[in-house]
Amino acid sequence: MAAVNSTSASMAATAVFLHRLPPGKPAVAFFRPSPQRRPIFKAESRRAAVKASSSDESAPPIDATELLTDLKEKWDGVENKPTVVLYGGGAIAAVWLASALVGAINSVPLLPKILELVGLGYTGWFVYRYLLFKSSRKELAEDIEALKKKIAGFE
Fold first, then answer.
1. So what's the pLDDT on residue 6?
2. Which of 44, 52, 93, 140 could be a cystine partner for 39, CB 3.0 to 4.6 Å?
3. Which spans are transmembrane here (predicted)?
4. Helices 81-107 & 111-126, crossing angle to 10 degrees?
5. Is the pLDDT of residue 150 over 70?
6. pLDDT at position 40, please?
């Protein structure tokens, strides 16, 4: 029985790691049944091949010229172009600054673990406060709907 479990575990581990293949390179993995157990079917005694590929063959190819023409049309439709450029540059700068800040916080020896515990505690509180009981779930749904209306400008 232990041999069956170890064979199943090795097949599962191989299947889990197959998704980490570089794009466009298929991989073939062969599984051999354990010699300690008898095969149920005759076909089970043979090798089974599994092929994994990271390319999506059903998706149509992307046309670069069509993409560029769509982007040009959208850019020409924008009335206030300097504002869009300013917001885009600000967003890139904010992401860079946030990355630098997270890297600095992560380099402090004990702080990341403390922040992990704070996040875990908040998650536990949120589940207890809003998700555990039916009445609190209704309250959360009402709060979310009110926020949606406030953002959309209906209120």
1. 46
2. 44
3. 84-108, 114-132
4. 110
5. yes
6. 56
**3-class SS at 51?**
strand
Burial 105-144 (b: 16+ CB within 10 A, else e): eeeeeeeeeeeeeeeeeeeeeeeeeeeeeeeeeeeeeeee
Please give the pLDDT value at position 32. Answer: 56
Contacts of 97 (CB under 8 A, 6+ apart): none
Task: With cut-offs at 50, 70 and 90, classify the pLDDT of residue 105.
Answer: confident
Domain ranges of the chain: 2-52, 80-109, 111-155
Structure tokens at 3: 């041999």
The dihedral through the CA atoms of 31, 34, 35, 39 has a sign that is: negative
d(CA 68, CA 71): 5
Q: Check if the beta carbon of residue 45 is closer than 8 Å to that of residue 33.
A: yes
What b/e readout covers 50-75, taking b as 16+ CB neighbours within 10 angstroms?
eebeeeeeeeeeeeeeeeeeeeeeee
